[in-house]
C-alpha cells in the first residue's frame, strides 16, 4: 500500500510566538513542520531533512535571512517564502532578486502564508509534469522538445510531430506494451492511416536514437505491439 507523505514546511523564525502560530496553522492544513530560530540551524535542517518549502524571516541571528536564502539556492531549488517587516521594501526587493519564490509582510495572516505555500507547491508539481523521462529519453512538453542523454551529453532529437506524439505517449509508461491500434489512435487519431504505419514511425525513431548512440529502445512484442524499454 502506498502512503502519501504530507509536505514538510520549515519555519525559520526567531520570535517564538510567531513561529508557534505558523507551525499550528501549517500542521492544521496537513503539513509536517520543522522549526529553526537562526540561519545556521536552518541550513543544517535543510541538509538533513530536505523540507519541501521554507518560510524564512529576513531578520535572524547568526546568519540573516538574505544570506541564508543565498546558501539555500546554492544547495538546490527548495522554494522559499520570505517574511519581511512592514515598510522594508529594500528587503523585499532584495529577497526576490536573490531568488525567493514569494514574500509576505509582517504582521501577516498565517492563513495567507499557508495558502501561498500550497500554491507554490502546486506550481512545482505542474512544472514537473511537463517533463517525462524514461532511460536516456526525456520529453519536455512545454517546449515541445525531446532529448537523449548519453553519459554527460544531452542531445536534442529532431522529430516529426507524429514521432513526438508517439514517443511522448510511450515514455510515460515505458515498460508497458502498447498495441499498434492504441498507438495509432494516440498519435494519428484523426487520420486514415493503417496500423502498420506505426511500424514505420517506430523504425524512424529507432534510427534517430541510434544515430545519437542510443540503442535498445522500442522493443517489439510479437502479436501485440511495442514497449519503449525492454524488461
What would you note in describing this structure?
With 231 residues, the protein is of the alpha/beta class. The chain is built from 8 helices and 12 strands. Helix 2 packs parallel to helix 3 and helix 6 packs across helix 7 (180-188). The protein is elongated and about 70 Å long. The model has no long low-confidence stretch (mean pLDDT 84).
CATH fourth-tier homologous superfamily of the largest domain:
Response regulator
- Count the helices. How many? 8
- Head-to-tail CA distance between termini: 24 Å
What class do helices, strands and sheet pairing give?
Answer: alpha/beta
Q: How big a fraction of the residues is strand?
A: 15-25%
Which residues form runs of ≥5 with pLDDT under 50? none
The H/E string reads: EHEHEHEHEHEEEEHEHHEE
Overall body shape: elongated
Radius of gyration: 24 Å
The main β sheet shows up as: 5 strands, parallel
Number of E strands: 12
Percent of residues in helices comes to 40-55%
- The CATH class assignment of the largest domain is Alpha Beta
CATH-defined topology of the largest domain: Rossmann fold
Task: Provide key terms for this protein.
231 residues, Arc Repressor Mutant, subunit A, 23% strand, elongated, alpha/beta
Q: SSE layout and pairings?
A:
Blueprint lengths: L7 E5 L3 H13 L3 E5 L2 H11 L3 E5 L7 H11 L4 E6 L3 H9 L4 E5 L3 H20 L1 E4 L2 E4 L4 E6 L2 E4 L4 H11 L6 E2 H9 L8 H15 L7 E3 L3 E3 L4
Parallel strand pairs: 1-2, 1-3, 3-4, 4-5
Antiparallel strand pairs: 6-7, 7-8, 8-9, 10-12, 11-12
Helix pairs in contact: 1-5, 2-3, 6-7, 6-8
Amino acid at each position: 500500500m502506498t502512503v502519501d507523505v504530507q509536505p514538510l514546511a520549515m519555519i525559520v523564525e526567531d520570535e517564538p510566538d510567531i513561529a508557534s502560530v505558523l507551525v499550528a496553522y501549517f500542521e492544521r492544513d496537513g503539513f509536517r513542520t520543522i522549526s529553526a530560530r537562526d540561519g545556521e540551524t536552518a541550513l543544517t535542517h535543510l541538509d538533513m531533512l530536505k523540507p519541501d518549502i521554507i518560510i524564512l524571516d529576513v531578520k535572524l541571528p547568526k546568519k540573516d535571512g538574505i544570506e541564508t536564502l543565498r546558501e539555500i539556492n546554492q544547495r538546490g531549488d527548495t522554494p522559499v517564502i520570505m517574511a519581511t517587516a512592514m515598510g522594508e521594501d529594500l528587503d523585499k526587493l532584495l529577497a526576490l532578486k536573490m531568488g525567493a519564490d514569494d514574500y509576505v509582510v509582517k504582521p501577516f495572516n498565517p492563513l495567507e502564508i499557508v495558502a501561498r505555500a500550497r500554491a507554490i507547491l502546486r506550481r512545482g508539481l505542474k512544472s514537473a509534469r511537463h517533463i517525462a523521462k524514461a532511460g536516456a529519453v526525456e520529453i519536455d512538453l512545454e517546449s515541445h522538445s525531446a532529448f537523449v542523454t548519453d553519459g554527460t551529453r544531452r542531445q536534442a532529437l529532431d522529430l516529426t510531430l507524429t514521432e513526438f506524439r508517439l514517443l511522448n505517449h510511450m515514455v510515460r509508461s515505458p515498460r508497458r506494451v502498447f498495441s499498434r491500434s492504441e498507438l495509432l489512435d494516440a498519435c494519428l487519431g484523426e487520420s486514415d492511416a493503417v496500423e502498420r504505419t506505426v511500424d514505420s514511425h517506430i523504425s524512424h525513431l529507432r534510427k534517430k536514437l541510434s544515430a545519437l548512440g542510443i540503442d535498445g529502445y522500442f522493443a517489439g512484442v510479437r502479436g501485440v505491439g511495442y514497449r519503449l524499454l525492454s524488461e
